[in-house]
Specification:
Helix content is 35%, strand content 20%. The protein is of the alpha+beta class. The relative contact order is 0.15.
Length: 194
């Protein structure tokens, strides 16, 4: 059986901003599809031009997510931006398919495995856009806010998930995601930080 890694699901400030933008009734789907479809377009520039993200967030996306030199999160992975652009186009096409009744796009970041992927899921009431990546290197820019995301898993899986956070924060077990009160033996719940 292959070794499985824990999956971290999160939003952070950028994905929250995307969700807020795509929940609006007047999203310019056709314009965004055209922008993301351009060969040389840049994701962060598009998001900034539509006032979805701040300048600081634009730099974070350009340098940390799509950079090809350290200290970028995944400098050795190729085509990261193209993957996100193509997934965004698919999500936008599905969301705007019914012009009189467009669907919101709900996005999230999944940290799992060693691949960089865009995953789009068509649901009856929304379109889900997941960006799956390897875990990023731990740094002080991560884990700034409590996410509205809770993970329930076995005691061992939660301990494995929290271990990098504990190591990063100098062994302080209160700074990483905090454990919630146990309901069942052998099962724990943790609220994520993003």
């Amino acid at each position: 059986m292959p070794v499985m890694t824990a999956t971290i699901y999160g939003k952070g400030e950028v994905f929250r901003a995307l969700d807020a933008f795509f929940a609006q009734p007047d999203v310019p789907y056709a314009d965004l599809i055209a922008e993301f479809s351009k060969k040389n377009s840049k994701v962060a520039t598009i998001l900034r031009n539509y006032k979805i993200i701040t300048r600081v967030q634009q730099k974070h996306i350009e340098d940390d997510w799509f950079g090809n030199e350290p200290p970028a999160y995944w400098p050795l992975i190729k085509n990261k931006e193209e993957i996100v652009k193509q997934a965004a186009v698919r999500a936008l096409k599905l969301a705007g398919a019914k012009k009189n009744n467009p669907l919101p796009i709900v996005s999230a970041w999944l940290c799992t495995g060693n691949q960089f992927q865009g995953i789009v899921e068509a649901c009856p009431n929304q379109i889900n856009l997941f960006i799956a990546t390897p875990p990023p290197p731990m740094n002080d820019d991560l884990e700034k806010i409590d996410e509205d995301v809770w993970v329930t898993a076995s005691d061992g899986a939660i301990a494995d998930m929290r271990e990098p956070f504990v190591k990063h924060w100098g062994g302080n077990k209160e700074t990483p995601p905090k454990l919630q009160k146990k309901m069942f033996k052998g099962v724990q719940e943790v609220r994520l930080k993003g």
